[in-house]
Design goal:
Order of helices and strands: EHHEEEHEHHH
Oligomer: single chain
Strand content: 5-15%
Low-confidence stretches: none
Helix content: 40-55%
Structural class: mainly alpha
Mean pLDDT: 95
Number of strands: 5
Bound molecules: iron/sulfur cluster
Length: about 140
């Protein structure tokens, strides 16, 4: 894996909540490698570049179609809402530590119900649990 990672806007929260589920074995193994790096001892310093096309998480996805996606309209909606919430622009670079702080500041518990509307993983609850844990970490 190259040093920096590319994420489309909604994948910042997907990475926060990832619990080993995905669209195929290859997809899940690739995402696990990326997320393990972010959750490792040097994870906070890993640099991430924002893209509105297929990113490093999308790479082995069976739904990817070139730089786009079989479910492009749904994905575009997710990216738009997450980019608005987190203040992410195409080509911006930020560390995973800065991204976590931005999520904590901008995404309150419960917000995923609207931010992630239409995502097939939303009802599983793991992303909301991870979001709540992030906010709990910030308690004095
Ligand atoms: S509910 Fe879906 S879009 Fe939202 S963070 Fe989880 S996996 Fe990502």
């Amino acid at each position: 894996m190259s040093e920096s990672i590319s994420f489309r806007p909604h994948h910042f929260l997907c990475a926060l909540g990832f619990q080993g589920k995905g669209y195929s074995d290859d997809f899940t193994a690739n995402m696990a490698r990326i997320v393990d790096r972010l959750r490792g001892p040097d994870g906070a310093g890993v640099e991430i570049e924002v893209t509105f096309q297929a990113d490093h998480i999308c790479a082995p996805c069976p739904l990817r179609r070139g730089q786009s996606c079989e479910t492009a309209p749904k994905i575009a909606g997710l990216d738009h809402r997450h980019a608005q919430a987190l203040g992410l622009r195409d080509g911006a670079r930020l560390t995973w530590g800065a991204a976590r702080a931005r999520i904590r500041d901008a995404v309150p518990p419960g917000a995923l119900n609207s931010l992630c509307a239409g995502c097939s993983w939303l009802d599983a609850g793991m992303c909301e649990s991870a979001l709540r844990a992030l906010h709990d970490e910030a308690q004095p």
